[in-house]
Design brief:
Layout: E1 20-25, H1 40-48, E2 54-55, E3 60-61, E4 67-72, H2 80-96, E5 100-105, H3 111-115, E6 121-126, H4 146-154, E7 159-164, H5 169-178, E8 181-184, H6 193-203, E9 207-213, H7 235-245, E10 249-255, H8 265-288
Parallel strand pairs: 1-4, 1-5, 5-10, 6-7, 6-9, 7-8, 9-10
Antiparallel strand pairs: 2-3
Helix pairs in contact: 1-8, 7-8
Length: 289
Amino acid sequence: MREFPNYFADAEESFNNADFIIFGLPYDKTSSFRFGARLAPKEIRKASWNFESFDMLTGVDFTEIPLHDYGDLDIENKNSEDMLESVKRFSKRVIKAKKIPVAIGGEHSVTPGLVEGFDDVFVISLDAHLDFRDEYEGNRYNHACASRRVADKVGIDNIAILGVRSAERKELEKAREEGLKFFASGSLSGDIDDVLKEISKDIGERKVYLSIDFDVLDPAYAPGVSTPEPFGLEPDDVIKVIKTFADRIVGFDLVEVCPPYDFGNTSILAAKVIRIAIAEIWKALKSGN
């Protein structure tokens, strides 16, 4: 492969002049199956150079979008709590500057720190796993607790999880008991539109934070993830979610790509999903001006 710059393709703007701030979160210290998600920001950036600046699917030319790639946060060797504090601090900085954070993980344990930066958002999480344990392996901030920690922040009524097909029995019972809104991947396999309409009613006029755990996709599309789970969503399902809520998305992350188990196709798809999300949000911003 040719050598490319170490930043996300077309992210040529300065921090102050950008509308979108891309940053990497190289963290996988709580991974419970495959380690290597900490390497994903670098590989996804590299994969992003595969694409034309003009995106035919969205009609957007990325040279017209003010993008800045901040680089990676220095979190790789921190414990979970210190990592989350660093992520929260940077998330707040980006939001205070009135910019849209685009975080590339890393494992899903980074998401609660990103959400902490916002005052009032509805969180949509695309995930094969419920991630609703209160603690796992003695750690309340394990990646298996990500949705629980997000719910602690935003409230159980302000989060919806799509694409779920794996949960521990007591975890599932607790989620149902507390009224967590989640949709199994099988319920989305026909037409996802009805589910998205239901979620839209719950959201009302609020803004949306979107978390894309890449294991939500079927391993046929994304084999290189930390905890693959068969019978998942298709890429078009993820794009439909993005398009539906683009005018309300104020930040998003893409997590759990695991390069050591990837032949390149997962990172390529991840980079494309990030680009489409940025393009759709950008179009919504322009039409709202």
